[in-house]
Design brief:
This is Flagellar protein FliL. Strand 2 and strand 3 form a beta hairpin. This protein is an alpha+beta fold. Helix 3 crosses helix 4. Strands 1, 2, 3 and 4 form a 4-stranded antiparallel beta sheet that branches. The longest helix has about 35 residues. The protein is rod-shaped and about 100 Å long. It has a domain of about 100 residues: Band 7 domain (Tetrahydropterin Synthase, Chain A, 2-Layer Sandwich), CATH 3.30.479.30.
């Protein structure tokens, strides 16, 4: 009888110890995962709309610089911002493009895309005073000359409406 009581006590202690160990080890990875966000966990990917920046010199518009970005940031910190991060990015793009008059958008070779992305990221983070934006990805970069801005080649990319009315005879 004493053997059964000792065995039952031993099983209870071993089970309790195993449960406590499993709960502790299950909670540790979650805490470290929240503290250290990686490319696969803890970051939000936010896509901006197309940001259009007019390119002009001496009062004459030459065309439009079009860019669409995707940036990564921690979701909780992003939600805590009073001003949308997209607005900060758009303002930083305007600042970067107008502060660098040596960039010629008509020549694609002149645009160093890596330094452009890095300057956008560091500029926004400096304004915020923290490392919120982890990475800036470029989804689209285009230069649209002024003479093509209203051309039919652009409007043809939009779907044309389909008429369901019967044709009328002339």
């Amino acid at each position: 009888m004493i053997k059964f009581m000792v065995a039952a006590l031993w099983i209870s202690i071993a089970t309790t110890g195993a449960l406590l160990y499993s709960f502790q080890s299950a909670q540790k990875p979650q805490d470290t995962a929240e503290a250290e966000a990686t490319a696969f966990q803890g970051l939000d990917y936010v896509k901006t709309g197309i940001i259009s920046v007019p390119v002009f010199d001496r009062g004459k518009v030459y065309g439009y610089f079009l860019v669409r970005l995707v940036f990564t940031a921690e979701g909780k910190r992003l939600a805590a911002l009073k001003l949308p991060a997209e607005a900060l990015l758009a303002d930083q793009i305007y600042t970067q493009l107008y502060a660098s008059p040596e960039i010629d958008f008509t020549k694609r070779d002149d645009l160093d895309i890596d330094s452009f992305r890095e300057s956008i990221r560091t500029g926004v983070n400096e304004r915020l005073g923290e490392e919120l934006i982890r990475e800036v990805l470029v989804e689209q970069v285009d230069f649209l000359p002024k003479d093509e801005a209203g051309s039919s080649s652009i409007s043809q990319s939009a779907p044309t409406p389909v008429s369901t009315a019967a044709p009328t005879g002339h």
